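WARN retry 2 of 3 for item q-0093 after timeout on previous attempt; input resubmitted unchanged.
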Amino acid sequence: MRDHKATRLAEDFIFLEGAKWRDGQLWVSDVFDHKVYRLGLNGAREKVVDVPNRPSGLGFLPDGTPIVASSKDFRLYKIIGNQIEEYADLTAHVGGDVNDFTIDSAGRIYVGNFGYDYDAGAPVVETVLHRVDPDGSVHIAAEGIEFPNAMVLINDGRTLVVAETWRGRLTAFDRSPNGQLSGKRTFADIGPRQPDGICADAKGAIWTGCFNTGEFVRVKDGGEITDRIVFDGCGVACTLGGPTGHTLFCTVYCGPVSDLIAARRKAAVFTLEVAIGAA
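OK item q-0093 returned
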């Protein structure tokens, strides 16, 4: 396993999720500051939009329209300029906060939810992944998932991988051309690490932020960890981008969870140039 040291790009955020690279900029959601930002490679930031009920996952429809998950009102929104417009209401379908998602080339959105009232200290229960089709219909895509977090499509879209945070593993599904998921299996068991955000590289390996250990690790199908970055804090979200697709962006909470609960502005973005770029 190779260890690396990343470079700080930007700081003074509360908690950054949903990292995505698009059109020369890094998009992130500051969950507890209720804002979506774009960042340049020089670290300069631009507020895109306010999302009052905790923005989380970010993604882009095939036509380039940004989508953001609004955790506490159980919706997906389109971002139109500096405003949000409802795209899908998941209230009747979910058991907890709407979290992260991925979008396929046909515009289908695979989205997870906590499954229970995490903030109230309710017991952990399994939940489902939903698929929101372009016509607005909502379908159960997979069941028996525990605290699904970020998702990514690999193998030219034939495989969906989701981070099951509390189980400490990445779980894979076969995906048919019409968007159906089947063949649930373990992509990687990463032991005591709690995977949060994930992204895939051109070799089909997954980078994941590990919330409880402060690590970002690159893991292959089967569980081999090839690379690692260690931070003093919580590993959150990651994405590959930059001019050549070889820049790994990592969002980190640089402090203990008690500081995060107090909304202290200790979140930052770090970068690392990697040998294997974006898929």
